[in-house]
Structures are given as structure tokens and as C-alpha cells.
């Protein structure tokens, strides 16, 4: 089989409204859960506390006189720069641009009777701008940014009423953009709720006696909301494709000790559980056994199982940044990752943030996913967060980013040669954005540098990095320059 990318391969970049847009209090937008997460200086961070907030911190974030910094409120000001930014994406030759719609920009309180017209028009403007450059939008309905009012009033996704509110939001945007958007995703990294319940489900942990029970109940509501959105989309936009989105955790056993292998198998099952439900349409036996062993009781309505089975997604999208190592024993140094962590792999190098760089693991994960599900795949997040320092001429010579991306794209091409059906690739953060986990901008991913620091100071001027021209050549050659 020839080692090449298929015609029509969807090259592009991926973002999230809460990390990109800014304009948190403009155009009728309400506060989102992401707007409430404060910046935590590096020397004050304690593991993953940057994505966990307490009830006290949540209430503090509503105060207009709060002295804390909330970087996701300003993002990189795409709200005012979207024409300039989309023109740069067009110059690179993007075939697709992954973005999310901020639910709080459409329904500021989540349970409003009517949508916010200014918010709807904002995304109309974006889609029309993308169309000028023949860029297909790939839209995520929920990307860590539910209306904060739904946390205040309903405790987030733990309340089944939120399904109806999400369904109303989904139906509103499907009808509004039926002629502008044909690729959709429901929930971003739906498995993130397990380790970051506030980010993933609006769950503030100190409000629950049994947080694991709350997580899986809220997750069930998201599964039903996702399936209902799939049903609606097929009715409203029959030619559309709707996918799910998984934070993929490719995991290796530390040794060939059968106990390490078994522990790794169990870890992988827990990662695949989310796609099992959304692609196969039912809860697998291993998760039912896990629930039984841990006294987790999922409350379902009579029609829920049928809803899941009848409304399965069309494709699987996923993020891939690094691989993990698992061991049956407690030994070994741990390596951080995107909300998740594992043992340090001695065969791999690490990024500035300690994430293990493993391009071959992407080929492995593509094969595993395709073997398991036999549906099209889409890599919608992959990239290198790094400290970018302009040289004397103001340029970013980011060969380290080029090398990272090249190695991963080569492995995607190898996976296609293995027989994997791959729809496209959107690198994470084609322009510098605010980090989801640390709310800092100094962890930069983009092909485009934004002059802004972690405290929101700067001109917000956009500058092309060296990787800009490189990615442009990759796209224009459909991956042949590699």
C-alpha cells in the first residue's frame, strides 16, 4: 500500500473557545466554568490543582472586585482578531479549523428561554469568514465551558435537567448553522471528567460526599445528551457527521511481568470505556463489574439504553500528546501529562513540561482504535507545548515543534498504510492560546506567536513562527514533503 495521505485529507488546527476567544463579558455572553479558573503561579501549583476549584474559589470568581487573575476571560482575544487569525489559517492552507461554540455565549445562563442573538451572530461571522478561505469548520459543542450558572443552580451535570438544556442548545446551533457546518463533535475529551470533574462536568468536589458516584452519574447524563445531540443532528443536517472525542491514553506495561500487563489492560479498558458507549452503544461488562465492586449505582431512565444504542457516533476523534507507562507495583518516577500521568518511560524524551514524547505511540493508538471499532478516526489534538523565545529579529525558531509534529505526522501516514481510515489532523493550538490545565500562555503550541504574557500584558500582536511556513508546505503537498 502506498504511503501517502488520501485525497481530501482534512489538515488544520484545533482550539477551544475558552482558551482562545476572550470577550468574556461582551456580546451578551455569560460566565462559563472556564472563566472561573484562576491563574496559579508555578511555585504555588500542587499537582493538578490548576483544574480543580473549591466552592469558595468558585464564589470568589463571581466577585467583580476579585484580585485573582482569570486568563481564560481574555484568551488571546480571537473575539476581536478572528478575521486576522482566520486569514493566517487560510494562508497556511487549512482545510479545516476545529473550534468550539461557547454554550454561555448562546445561552448565558444555560437555562434561558431564548438564545442570545449576538452570540449566534458571532459564530455566523466566523463561519462566513472561514468559508472565504474554503476552510471547513469542525465544531465541538462542549469543550470545558458550560455556563457557570448551571453549576451554581444545578451543581453541573449531576442534575439530569441539564440534559434538556444542552439538547436545546444543540438544537439551536444545528438549526442556525445547518448550511455552514457539517462536522460536529459532542463533548471534548469526555473521559476528563474522571480526573478533572469540574473541567469535565461542572462538579465541585467539596459538594459531594461520594465524588466517584457523582462523576459516573454526571457522565451518564453526558452520554445521553451526546446521543440525543447525534439524533437531532441527523434529523436537522442529514449530510452531517457527528463524532465523539476521547483523551487517548496509550499505555504500556513497565515490564513483561504478567501483573504489569494485566494492570495495563485494565487501564486501557477504562480509557476505551467512553468510546465503547458512544460507538458501540452500550456499557461494556467490565465497567458494570467496576461499578459493582465500587458500589457505584447509575440511575437510568427506561429509555436510556435504547437512546445510546440507536444514536451512535459516526467517527472517533481523539487527542494524543504522549503515552503512559503502568505498573502493578508502586515503584518508578511519575511523568506528568494533559490532566493524566503515568510512570516515566526511560526510552522517551520529555517536553518542557515533562510530557513524554512518543510519536510511534500515535501509530499504535490509531491501529488499536481502528481494530476495536472499525469506524473512521480523526486526530483532533496533537502538539508540543514549549517555551518560545523570540530571537534578535523577533522570530521564533521553533525547530523543536517542527520535529515533534513531523515525527507524529509520519506515524499517522504509517498507520494509514497499516489500513487505518483517518479523516484528518488538526494540531492543537495553531495559534498560541491559554493552557487548559495551568491557565498560562507561556506553554505555547502555535504556529502563530501572540504577544501576551501570563498576566494578560502585551500588544496581542500576531507573528508567524518558523513552523508556520513548514506546516504550510505540509498541507500544500498533502504530507509529501515529510
UniProtKB/TrEMBL annotation:
GO terms for cellular component: cytosol. The gene is ascB. This is 6-phospho-beta-glucosidase. It is an enzyme of class 3 (hydrolase). Belongs to the glycosyl hydrolase 1 family. One of its GO terms (molecular function) is 6-phospho-beta-glucosidase activity. PROSITE patterns: GLYCOSYL_HYDROL_F1_1, GLYCOSYL_HYDROL_F1_2. Its EC number is 3.2.1.86. The active site is at residue 381. Keywords: Glycosidase, Hydrolase. One of its GO terms (biological process) is carbohydrate catabolic process.
